Amino acid sequence: MKLRLSLITTAVLFFAGGQVVEAQRTNKDTTTTEKQIDEVVIVAYGSQKKETLVGSNTEIKAKQFADRPISNIGQAIDGASPGVKVSTGTGQPGSAPSIQIRGIGSYGISTSPLYVVDGVIYTGSLSAINTNDIASFNILKDAASTSLYGSAAANGVVLITTKSGRKGTDVLNFNMSTGYVGRSIPEYDRVDVYQYYPLIWEAMRNGRLTSVPGTTVAAANAYATTNLISGVLKTNVFNVADNQLVVDGILNPNAQLKYTDLDWQGPLMKTGFRQSYELNYSGGTNKTTYFSSVGYTNETGYLAKSDFERFNARLKVDSQIKSWLKLGTSISGVSSNGNNSIDGADNNSSYINPYSWTRTMGPIYSPYAHDPNTFATLYDAAGNIVYDAGSARGADAAAGRNVIQETLLNKDISKNYYIISRAYAEFKVDPYLTLSTNVGYDIRNNRRSRYVNKLIGDAAPAGAAEKTTFTEQTLTWNQLLNYKRKFGVHNFEFLLGHENYKYMYEYFNAYKQGQTVDDNDELINFVTPTTVTSQTDNYRKESVFSRLNYDYKSKYLLSGSIRWDASSRFAEDVRWNSFWSVGAGWRIKAEDFLSASSTISELKLRGSYGEVGNDGTNSYYMYKSTYSLGYNNAQEPGILFGFLADPSITWESNKQTDLGLDFGFLNNRITGSVDYYNRVTDDLIFPVPLPVSGGVPGNSISKNVGTMYNRGFEFAISADVVRNDNFTWNINANASTLKNEVTELSAGITEIINGTKKVSVGHSVYDYWLRQWYGVDPADGSPLFLVADAYAGTTASDIRTVNGTQVTTNFNKAKYDYSGTAIPDLFGSFGTSITYKQWSLSTMFTYQLGGMTYDSNYQSLMSSYSQGGALSKDILDRWTTPGQITDVPALNSSTYTNSNAASSRWLVKSDFITFRQATLGYSFSPESISQYGLTSLRLLLSGENIWSKTARKGLEPAQSFNGTTTNRYTPARIVTIGFNLSF
Known about the structure:
Low-confidence stretches: 1-35
Structural class: mainly beta
Helix content: under 10%
Distance between the termini: 29 Å
Largest sheet: 22 strands, antiparallel, barrel
């Protein structure tokens, strides 16, 4: 874009630290010439012309996510940039996704990026930041971009820039949206009540034939018929006698259901509702600009008793007090509260996990009690439905529990209060030298109240209540000296800074049992204190940093930075460390042989190398051995050894190399970038095994003992296929690859086995280590595994040869081996945006190719002998006849533990494509609405998590980076309508 002008300088609005909100300005020129507008982007502790960047910095502006019904800025990061992998958040309203930038930064400590809000490190919940208050966010991926954040930057940095006012006319905006919330991931297909009884009968019959040699088929059939209900399932929902329900494997054709209310998911999972309202007012004079907003968001999830409500208010003021002095401040107040759903990840198979037990409950059990004679649903004297406590259920059907009743009776409520504040002063010492100081203070108070009912479940018959509070405070203060000078065609920028960071955490928890009166869940209403505890943690960092940028005619680019950090997590003699980077770029477009090209509008080659760190350990006192209090015996105090420390432990360091090419063609109708990166993480913190006789908790000590790398390619492209006054059509896509490998382990470690993974040299930390499933023996339907070397050649009855391969039917003799990886071959997103006159449409798809998921959810539905648990429809493909070729073993109550053992059988392809979001908008013309005092009016229809295709119905491959699944609250589909108007 070019402007003909005499002397034009667009207003540039700074927030704390001198960072730029307005993204462009023109060069000064005193003659009537055409000048190219310089696009300015946010960088660490400042801003920089985009054309002179040598680092990998992806900018996402507000217009790309402003119309989406999202409660958390983390949701807008999904698909926004190559090299960024997102593990989708749960369906719990307000929840945030997990994010990894350029691979797996660590094994045992944090892999999350650093978040910086308006120039200050932010450690609070992202749900506390109103997305409509955000002007843009920048994802910093390489060392040249992140090194000024030193010890916290190993996993990348996300810079969040909030909105400021603009000089000129005051503007009042009002935004509103409302819509429905539903489930986006379909449930696994499961057999129904008519199919279920014969399948369990078959498992019992086959088990009898196996366990009692010499039994005839007729005798085994009779055994299964007689014991199906009384011995295993306990409940018969048909109107025929128990011993006539299934005869010779056939459901009695005269059987009719006594009642049909067998659905456990329906009562808990319904349609939710979302509504959002926001009013903001902004403007400014030549000296002062201001932005204020108030907002309200309320989202009820599709799971009963899960919701999120947020009130937010914000004020930001920037003022040029004197020609040499600029001051600014912003403050946000946020109150959020809601009902918490059960965390499926931490309570995967818990009786109170509604996702687990509604999924795995057999289709023959009703949640409700029924009259034994009329079979009518029972109600109490107050007209409330009576729930079935489950005394007549099989072993796999949670006898004695009722997840619907417990979910409705129990309470788990969180209330959060936030203050997020920033202030700065900027002194113009001379035309080239600027001194600024910035202060950020954030406080979060969380109050969580839990009540566990006394009628059924974990606290019955006493009842219990728990109160938890914690307060987090962060205080950041930095001082920046910035010197910018131009000598002819030479441009210099020098930054020198100092920063203090202070984090304080206070925690209190109390748990009491023995409820006194009903309808009161305050602690005073409970008799026996079980737990009363509190703790306080402190964390400090001290930093000095510097950066030097140089360019020659914006053609040859150099950048260097260094930061010294001290972290209170480590001992004094290893507390300080330096982190640095160097970068260079060649803007080929500025060369004489390309400067006049109408085809190539941008071409820049860049590269960088540097070292950043990670001190995100689980403990704030890694160098101190600690002891656990509270293990008292009556009045005698007790202390237990809690943690054995290595005093020499220190940062994990991340050495990064980046090579990139930025390009633009045809007046930037086509733009994009290609990057290659190599991240080497040294001094990986691993738990080093110790002898059990040492008496060390966990039988391990954390040490710096490993090295691994992440490397890959990133591609991004955007093309305006059509671009004119009435119609524009843009398509965009990005793609990334990732290779992760452990290259060194020391201190006696050769391998670490954790669940489905084994860490060893030459393999990724996400490579599967599993028993090797071979298949099903066509002769008798037995489950087969490759035999372990220790048992090869033996003649035991559970070892056989099939198709020339020695295998075993005993999972305890199965061979363990590497079985693929959770890391995909390719992942990314693609989308399009179209505008036609006053209409607009934008869409985005995310995808993944390659990698494997260990689907334990599916595994739980494929039991060869379910005793009241649900079964996948795939069980219908089980082996039944000699010679049959299938991958589902025979149903057998004697061998089912082998069939369902953890093995490579449960790996499934992680490929997916998701219709992540779409927005359709219509903007009224200014002429048609001006008579109503409006300057703009826009109608919107928007959706999130609209559709997905996976290798198996019910599978959610994006729920974790390591490829495992849990019974969790799957992401919600949200569809809203709304409008934006301005006065």
